[in-house]
Design brief:
By secondary structure, the chain is mostly beta strands. About 0% of the residues lie in helices and about 60% in strands. The strands form two sheets. Strands 2, 4, 5, 6, 9, 10 and 11 form a seven-stranded mixed sheet that branches. It is elongated, with a radius of gyration of 14 Å.
Length: about 120
Amino acid sequence: QVRLEESGGGLVQAGGSLRLSCAASGRIFRISAMGWYRQYTGKQRELVARITDGGITNYADSVKGRFTISRENAKNTVYLQMNTLKPEDTAVYYCNAVQTILGPTYNYWGQGTQVTVSS
């Protein structure tokens, strides 16, 4: 089992910044990708940003140029630097890790951290 521990959410004014962190621990073999998703109330979870263990990134169009995802493979930790935050970024943010073990992949989720951006 892989556990994901998130930190860094909170309340910030529009235009401000926050940095989310997520550390994976437990039975880790190879985490091929880590990422952040967010969920608005009553809506499905959506991808915010994702990074592979090779450093390939992808972002939701709504956050390109404002958010940066990075990863420390040795620490199995992923970060999301969020700049120029907008009220529409208010959501619960979830860390995700994808582990590949001899072919099959397994998805793991953090407990979620609230990000609130006031106008």
